[in-house]
Amino acid sequence: MTTPRCILITGAASGIGAGIATELAAAGHHLVVTDVNLDAAESVAASIRTAGGSAEALALDVTSDDSVAAALAAVSHPVDVLVNNAGLQHVAPLEEFPIAKWDFLVQVMLVGVARLTRAVLPGMRERGFGRIVNIGSIHSLVASPYKSAYVAAKHGLLGFSKVLALETAGTDITINTICPTYVKTPLVDKQIADQARTRGIPEAQVVSEVMLKPMPKGVFITFEELAGITAFLMSPAARNITGHSIDVDGGWTVQ
Hints:
Protein name: 3-hydroxybutyrate dehydrogenase
EC number: 1.1.1.30
Number of strands: 7
CATH class of the largest domain: Alpha Beta
Number of helices: 8
Pfam families: adh_short (PF00106)
Largest sheet: 7 strands, parallel
CATH architecture of the largest domain: 3-Layer(aba) Sandwich
Radius of gyration: 18 Å
Shape: globular
CATH topology of the largest domain: Rossmann fold
Mean pLDDT: 96
CATH superfamily of the largest domain: NAD(P)-binding Rossmann-like Domain
Family: Belongs to the short-chain dehydrogenases/reductases (SDR) family.
Helix content: 40-55%
GO molecular function: 3-hydroxybutyrate dehydrogenase activity
Strand content: 5-15%
């Protein structure tokens, strides 16, 4: 029997975060849907509640100490599981990449992960249980041109997780990074358009020749897969899996 957990997901107003929240709520967990866009987060939480699940929505900006503190003070249940999902993308050659935008991507996807993890760890230690699941990317493992900030941040998650795995080894807390290839989300739809513009090719060609071509399985990853892996990492069967990347890449990196 699955133990119901309180799961806080960042960037959960759309895309991967919303998909994972919906799936895990259906499995009986309480979801804390957080995002910088509170209205959109509340819409996801409301749809979960309409379907019979348990959810609340909170505004959360992972780049702000005050926002993190306010959200954790407002949450209705102690956080058992943190899913660090908030992310964004910008596609440009480095010479044309605004450094403020470069810094912002790293602030959201790496420094923000450290900020929020740091904030929830004391409670997890006190209760003797915690699961931290980072949503990385195939770009935690390999690179693509024009994505220097994203690739750097996602690579950084792996090193961060290894250190935290050692720092939390004395209690039942684990930290792992799920590294999927492309999931069909609004972020990926925008990337398709950006890549088409940058490379000067049609969008359909971006999908077939750039995104799915490196994957022997040749299909987009689903929310159900990511939620299932998260559920496994939360389970007692995964208590000794920590500091690792779970590569969901359709065979990309075994070639």
